TrEMBL record:
GO terms for biological process: B cell activation; immune response; interleukin-4-mediated signaling pathway; negative regulation of inflammatory response; positive regulation of DNA-templated transcription; regulation of immune response. This is Interleukin-4. One of its GO terms (cellular component) is extracellular region. One of its GO terms (molecular function) is growth factor activity. It holds the Pfam family IL4. PANTHER family: INTERLEUKIN-4. The keyword Zinc does not apply. Keywords: B-cell activation. Participates in at least several B-cell activation processes as well as of other cell types. It is a costimulator of DNA-synthesis. It induces the expression of class II MHC molecules on resting B-cells. It enhances both secretion and cell surface expression of IgE and IgG1. It also regulates the expression of the low affinity Fc receptor for IgE (CD23) on both lymphocytes and monocytes. Positively regulates IL31RA expression in macrophages. Stimulates autophagy in dendritic cells by interfering with mTORC1 signaling and through the induction of RUFY4. InterPro entries: 4_helix_cytokine-like_core, IL-4, IL-4/IL-13. It comes from Phyllostomus discolor (pale spear-nosed bat).
Length: 88
């Protein structure tokens, strides 16, 4: 998808893992709340729910100026999660 979204994964490296997951969940929620494709919405809602659980319900805000496409964003998130679980 070429949908433009806030690029929270390009945020400063001093952000904790929980903050990153929280910010990613916020961005995904913004996408599926304003998108009409039910199949995409279902998948993004599941991902949002999982990331919220990993963030332990902390609150965060997203005010990124950098933008990315949803496709690139999800690909970078996939790589980040693979690295996380490869470490064990």
């Amino acid at each position: 998808m070429e949908l433009p979204i806030a690029d929270v994964l390009a945020a400063p490296k001093n952000m904790t893992e929980k903050e990153t997951f929280c910010r990613v969940a916020v961005v995904l929620r913004q996408v599926y709340m304003h998108h009409n494709c039910e199949e995409t919405n279902r998948s993004l809602r599941k991902l949002d729910r999982n990331l919220n659980g990993m963030a332990n319900k902390i609150t965060c805000s997203v005010n990124e100026v950098r933008m990315s496409t949803l496709r690139d964003f999800l690909e970078r998130l996939r790589r980040m999660m693979q690295q996380k679980y490869a470490r064990g």
